[in-house]
Each structure stands twice: as structure tokens, then as C-alpha cells.
Amino acid sequence: MNNILIIDDDMDLCDLLKDYLTPEGFVVEALHNGVEGAERAVAGQYALIVLDVMLPGINGFEVLRRIRAVSRIPVLMLTARGEEVDRIVGLEIGADDYLPKPFNPRELVARIRAVLRRAESGHHSPVQTQPQPDTWRLIVGDVELVPGTRTVRCAGLKVDLTSVEFAILESLLRKAGQVVSRDDLVKQALGRNLSAYDRSIDVHVSSLRKKLDHGAGGAERIKTIRGVGYLYSAEN
User: Which of 54-68, 123-137, 143-157 has the highest mean pLDDT?
Assistant: First the structure.
């Protein structure tokens, strides 16, 4: 399925994105109102949603909240350049990635393909080196991750993760007890190189921490190694 829904009130931009995405094999639909966009996003069959923050009706954050209440469909948010708060809020609510305006349409296509590669199949996780059976699982302490079914349990309870959070956790668990650099996490989880002032990976890690809570005995599961990256404690 290559259907993409764009929710943005800039009609000229929507037309431009259609011109770029259609030759890439995508079927593009555009809506220009937040309320209508939220309704269509949860009712339709789409591979990905491109969502602007500033919308008439309801804003992009509320649209994303309504989508995330019922669906894990990948969402790429468009934010105003310089509005870092918007990007952080969007990621905290559950956006898979963001792109600041104005942007090169080729960059949008690259971001879309990276997000779709993460989400298209549970059998092809970004950090897997070879195919794994559905029953293969990665266990560190009380956390169990199954790449084949893209499921995670913590202390026996299922944890609902976004595709980015899942990729980050898998990468960290595979290297439990070792430091994973921010550069490597961005490449593995977001499918792109780390750019200057990009805090998206840090926001995703923060969200992942909250969902997993603390380790046994209150120990921190994911430790920040300042200036380097992150480490998942093998002791949990």
C-alpha cells in the first residue's frame, strides 16, 4: 500500500508534493482542514500521514492525538523552521519524524521512505543483520522484545511503542551493557544521518524511558553517556 494522506492547508504545497510523490509510486490525497484530516486518517487505508502543525479547525497536535488514540500509522509532521518546541511536542505525542518548513521536496521523499522502511514489516527491523523467525526473542532482564511480531513486554506487561521507539530499544538491547552512539541510533532508528541541533532521538529515548519506567529496584534502564550516546544497563 503506497497511499499517503497529506493534511496541510497550503494548497500550493500540497500540489507540489503530489507532483514529487506521484512519480515515486505514491498515491497522494490531500486535505486542508484538521477535523476532516483526523477523520480521514483514522477511517482510511494509508501507509503514512504527512501532517502540518498549523491547521484550521484543530491543529496538527490534536489531529495526531486523535490518530494515536486508535492507530499506530506512521506520521511525519511538518513544523515551522525554528519552532523546536513544536517538534518536541509532536515527537512526544507520537510522531515518527518531523521536517521543518521550508524544505526540499526530495528530503521529504527521503524521510517518507525511511519511515516506511521501519514500519512496513515486522520481519525487517532496521537493526537486524539476518531474517529471524517470529519466535526469536531478545531478553534483557525483565524486558522481552520479539522482532518478528514487533512486540515488547516489560515485567510481563505489553508495552505499546512507536516504530522509532521499537527500533531504538532493539538497538540498545542488542548492545546491552555497551554504549550506542547518538549517530548510530539516528541511522538505525530514523534512517538518516544525525544533523546539528537535532534533538529528535533524545525525545524518542525520553519517551521510551517513560514507557519502560525504571528497572528493577529503581535502577535506570537507559543511561545517558554525555557527549557520546546511550547505554542500556545489562543489570536490569
Answer: 54-68
Structural domain total, the chain: 2
Integer Rg of the chain from CA: 18
| CATH number reported for the structural domain that contains residue 106 in this entry | 3.40.50.2300
Predicted confidence (pLDDT) per residue in 23-48, tens digit: 999 999 999 999 999 999 999 889 99
Q: Assign residue 143 a region (left: φ > 0; alpha: ψ between -120 and 50; beta: otherwise).
A: beta
Average pLDDT over the chain, rounded to an integer? 86
Pair 184, 205: CB distance under 8 Å: no
What does the CA dihedral 16, 63, 55, 21 come to, rounded to 10 degrees?
A: 0
Listed residue (78, 70, 122) closest to 96, CA to CA? 78
CB 63 within 8 A of CB 40: no
- Answer yes or no: are the C-beta atoms of 3 and 40 closer than 8 Å: no
**Cβ–Cβ < 8 Å for 167, 118:** yes
Q: Which of 89, 65, 99, 95 is nearest to 165 (CA)?
A: 95
Whether residues 70 and 167 fall in one domain:
no
Q: What does the pLDDT read at residue 124?
A: 37
